[in-house]
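Please go through the protein record below and explain what the tokens say about the fold. Record follows.
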Amino acid sequence: MSSNEDLDRQIAQMRREIQPERDLWQQIESRLPEQRQGAGFRWLGSAAAIAAVVTFAASGLLAWRLQLMPGWFEMQPASVRIVQQYEQQKAQQLGELGPVSEYFGNWRYQLAVWDQAIWQVQSAMDDNPDDPVLIGQMESLYRQQLGYIQTIASVDIYDY
């Protein structure tokens, strides 16, 4: 008889559920240190207060630094300014978008395709953020995407 067959036979003879011979919880419970009720909530409140102070201080520091840097927006690479401008327009158009005609099918997928293309151009711009050809490509992709959103927003869903 092989060792695998012997092992299979022994496993088959084992009980499915094994129970301890005595209740182990009483021994474990007696060894646990007593915990005060509510101590965790006081710690949580302190942590929240510290987090609020740190957040407030960081936002104040950021605002102060931006005041010291006039023209901060102009110092950014052109790609960053373009992304901010077009993404703001896109968010506004999508926020105002009502029901879309079934004529356009999966229009969200089409927007995702443009987003992917824009991301690829942005990745290429990591090495040269002011490349005029890449800037032109990115602006063109954003204009196409915004035009598409405007088109789907202007088509009456009940005409088709």
About this structure: The helical segments are 3-13, 25-31, 39-68, 72-75, 78-96, 107-124, 132-154. The chain has a mean pLDDT of 77.
